[in-house]
Amino acid sequence: MHPFRTLTTTAVPLPIEDVDTDQIIPARFLKATTREGFGENLFRDWRYDKLNHPKDFVLNNPVYAGDILMAGANFGCGSSREHAAWAIQDFGFRAVVSSYFADIFRGNALNNGLLPVTITPEALDEAFRTIEQNPAARFTVNLLEQTFTNEDTGTVTGFPIDEYKKTCLINGYDDIDFLLSQAQQIEAFEAGRVDHSI
Amino acid sequence: MPTLFDKVWDAHVVTEVPGGNQVLYIDRHLIHEVTSPQAFNGLRQRGIRLARPDRIVATADHNVPTKEQHKPIAEPLSRKQVEMLTTNCAEFGVELYGLGHPYQGIVHVIGPELGITRPGITMVCGDSHTSTHGAFGAIAFGIGTSQVEQVMATQCVLMSKPKKMRINVEGELQPGVTAKDLILYVIAQLGTGGGTGHFVEYAGSAVCALSMEGRMTVCNMSIEMGARGGLIAPDQTTFDYIEGREFAPRGADWEAAVAHWRTLPTDVDAVFDTEYTYRAEDIPPMITYGTNPGMGMGVTDLIPMASDLHGEASMHKAMNYMDLHIGQQMEGMPIDYVFIGSCTNSRIEDLRLAGALVQGKQIAPGITGIVVPGSQQVAKQAIAEGLDKVFETAGFEFRGAGCSACLGMNEDKVPAGRYCVSTSNRNFEGRQGPGARTILASPLTAAAAAIAGRIVDVRNEYAVLA
Ligand code: SF4
């Protein structure tokens, strides 16, 4: 996992609520058995028509670019497919900003070093308006300070993230390293309980 | 005073991590071909083995064809993914109920029917509908592939404890109204994000009166309102369902297990972070009009305006995709496909219900109807009861077990632009195939739509039946 500290960039706006993981990466592209290459099919059916011609969609619009995907509320709902986080990252995004994320997607993103940034609906609305007026507007995500800055308007908003996850992201650590270090405690737990599960 | 969720969660906490996370022990891990290959690769790269292979069960469901299942899978990528599951399970020593095995089926159908799913356990799967298993009073939730790897390596996940919500449904459901309508109704009230950050306990007399199949349908769709999972207190209905199943405890183990399970229900004075109560009598047969499961309404209602739950942009996009409009009545609308299946509604009771409605009738000309049992065992039981013949005589295709047309990953797809009344759980754009238009409904409403060739209020049909 690549460490994440701070990022200043333009953003790609997707002001739609409830974007589900079936849109982010449709099921028919889940047949790969590695983690790489999913970016090509990110938002496949919103980007291309049946004949693979580009549609009128923000990712096809050269006016918008940047390392932040700015999306409407409840981003990443639906399936647990981690392929959605892989696809967004593989496409080149490093952070997704929304007013809230679906739980499984948020966890998957964090586990891959793709930062989900939860800001207030007001700050998100302002950011969408800023991009609409100026697609070259820049935004800063500062993980160390836990702030999101709209560089155009100067608005600074805090965002929550739990301390443990923050440390993982800053250092590029995986949960699995931590869990493997807990082997003794896990063994003790198994030995010390009455188990009706198996 | 603890809730059911607290009791099960707290009994599985191995350690606390500073900052609020907990190491949670996982009793049972289900895997399928789509979300496991990268996890097995991760283990290989680290040079580690499974922590507890005896706690994992695997099956192939998403990619499998539902016709001619004895033949090799035609589509090369699907075949490769299923073959890789076989190789991985052999290499790592995982029990696999693959294609051709009498226990094969949709992962959320086989866990309960084999007696693997039990009250009081923690259960995960790289699949969001793992919430289904909560019907037994288990904490069951979907995880991503990185977490699949974590559970394989350590039998644990690292999580902060979700908040608690209780949804009470009191009273008696109208005739013709099913568990599926109940949950579609709740999701329509709360929206697709209404349960975010929560685990939901379903309670109240209408929920207690449901069969295990109905409870599974309800818990299955918890994720569609954004909840991590759903659960229902175990009771005699639960115990009767589990007793005698393949891997259920027996003898003294059974007695001890049941005694433990009886201690699990939420204490009377327990407090939830959020609580809602609905009246069962208010719930009509439900259909969806849009492109997420929260866009649902009573079958006789008119498509509503944009609201706080569904903003202008989302409504506009949904109406465009569905080729419907705000204010439109959907009752009476012609449809093209009917799909009865998926982990929401492919159990024997679902097939019995739909079968009773179609018995002696014919599906309308031009309608394609497919019935896909959730597992080989459901298929076997349905055939033993003659349900396959009932469906086939009515003009349906009766297929082999799998996820089928629930998602456009295998051969079973709905063509672009066509309307499909489906008993599955997601009406997302392209879910049943690129451009397919999904209308979610109960098995009764779906069966009635197949017969009529259009969307109908099954309460009218049902009155005749009863
Ligand atoms: S039936 Fe549908 S929702 Fe259920 S596991 Fe299969 S693909 Fe997922």
How does this structure look, described?
- The complex is a heterodimer of chains A (198) and B (466).
- Chain A is α/β, with parallel strands linked by helices.
- Chain A is built from eight helices and eight strands; from the N terminus they run E-E-H-H-E-H-E-H-E-H-E-E-E-H-H-H.
- Chain A has helices at 21-24, 44-47, 83-91, 103-111, 121-133, 163-171, 175-180, 183-191; strands spanning 6-9, 11-14, 68-71, 95-98, 115-118, 139-142, 147-150, 156-158.
- In chain A, the strands form two sheets. Chain A has a four-stranded antiparallel beta sheet, with helices on one face. A four-stranded parallel beta sheet of chain A has the order 2-3-4-5.
- The radius of gyration of chain B is 21 Å and the shape is globular.
- Helices cover 32% and strands 17% of the residues of chain B.
- Chain B is built from 16 helices and 19 strands.
- In chain B, helix 6 (179-190) packs parallel to helix 8 (212-220), helix 12 crosses helix 14 (387-394) and helix 12 (348-358) runs parallel beside helix 15 (443-452).
- With 466 residues, chain B is an alpha/beta fold.
- In chain B, the strands form five sheets. In chain B, strands 5-4-3-6-7 form a five-stranded parallel beta sheet. In chain B, strands 17-16-15-18-19 form a five-stranded parallel beta sheet, with helices on one face. A four-stranded parallel beta sheet of chain B has the order 11-10-9-12.
- At the A-B interface, helix 4, helix 6, helix 7 and helix 8 of A face strand 2, helix 2, helix 3, helix 5 and strand 8 of B.
- The complex binds iron/sulfur cluster.
- Iron/sulfur cluster binds next to loops of chain B.
- Chain B: It catalyses: (2R,3S)-3-isopropylmalate = (2S)-2-isopropylmalate.
- Chain B: It is an enzyme of class 4 (lyase).
- Chain B: GO terms for molecular function: 3-isopropylmalate dehydratase activity.
